[in-house]
Amino acid sequence: MTIRIPFDNSYARLPEGFFARVGPVPVRAPRLIRLNEPLARELGLDPEALSSPEGVAVLAGGEIAEGSEPLAAAYAGHQFGSFVPQLGDGRAVLLGEVLDRNGARRDIQLKGSGKTPFSRGGDGRAALGPVLREYVVSEAMAAMGVPTTRALAAVTTGEHVLREDVLPGAVLTRVAASHIRVGTFQFFAVRRDAEALKRLADHAIARHDPAAADAPNPYVALLRGVAERQARLVARWMSLGFIHGVMNTDNMTISGETIDYGPCAFMDAYHPDTVFSSIDQFGRYAYANQPGIALWNLACLAECLLPLFHEDGDAAVAIAQDVLAGFEPVHSEAHLALFRAKLGLASEEADDRALAEDLLNRMAAAGADFTLFFRRLSDAAGNPVETRSLRDLFSDPTAFDPWADRWLERLGRDPQAAEERRAAMKRANPARIPRNHRVEEAIAAAVERDDFAPFHALVEALQDPFADDPALAAYEAPPRTEERVLQTFCGT
Ligand code: AMP
Ligand code: MG
Q1: Fewer beta carbons within 10 angstroms: which end of the chain, N or C?
Q2: Relative to the CA of 124, which ligand 1 atom is closest?
Q3: Predicted TM-score of the model (pTM)
């Protein structure tokens, strides 16, 4: 069965300095783990063909589909605050772009596909564990409506990669609105390549902010667009207890999609200082720091764009500052709207932010489980008796009572009927998230026993995270003490 992918490549048309033309390196014995059939159809691809041996060869990098112009993109980036002038796709290649069923341009990229000129001493490969983690978490994020790159497929390679241990290798096929990062702009800015920078900005505008082309200064409008998307994106993360873990500037998109799922995790017990990543020693990317870091990254992007804002340096800085000042209000409005929804509030009152903050402070002090609490609050939907029973989720139940009184009183001034409120809250508060212990369990079964059943079951359990499903109760429960996973690893 021949594989037809109707590529329509635009990045490959950019000047040569934007990338290295390099193909994936074939692997020994590719085997399909999972194909995302609905996503394949969304992209206009035939799932049956993709899961045939010829299709799997393409997904593993052994065959190049017609029309593919594989390339490794150049980018730079601040990693934990230190600038690295050259990073780039060291273990990924862009196969090309397709226009999906809705006419949207989507990148198809292989991650773990072998060495490129940007590998910097790395082997260009990915271990199975991180590939499965990215598959599970990115698809769960998509199912929860969070802008994200997607997972089209995962294959094992039949080869081993050497990390701290010898591990099975894998390749993820990733789909993204684009792979343009803040770090892509930094790559040209640090080289003082004004022409390339403008070319990149024009490409990004055409792809992600077409309306900006008509603005008085399109590049200012581009920065504003990126800032607003990131402000809203990070608010979504915060509302779900998601911690990205490596918010380096090379891991922040221009499109506003979540990208590069490394040591990411959802927190169980709520605490604003939560950090999972083993490499984040100082908590730079802790849960509560995420909005501030997003703004820091956007300041890096703004710095790159200054020459396109105004020929006078001071004037350019003033413009950038003005745009960046817009981040906080957009973020905090989005954040408040999401927490109002989580609390079942259809109306708006000035004290709503304080009501949410009061709750979060109490949850942090009492180690209450974030996802379970909000889901059970949705079930209660303002019923006083059921609401009271939530006090058991707090290590000191009396800490919950005053807040419950305050919430019930506030609901008394909200127009929604209980049933309507319950339904709305259940659309804001997922029953199931990719709990870290479940993700680790699925990875361990696959890596240690070649058993992919827990992985498939987990992916399927997260396909409709807002629906009640008693059969999936095991995926809703927080970890028991002995099941808790406190650290996650990049595994790169
Ligand atoms: P990441 O941790 O995915 O954000 O990657 C940071 C940088 O390291 C990027 O330039 C990657 O391409 C590169 N990198 C990560 N893992 C490898 C690897 N196994 N081989 C080569 N380059 C890698
Ligand atoms: Mg990265």
Answers
A1: N
A2: 20
A3: 0.98
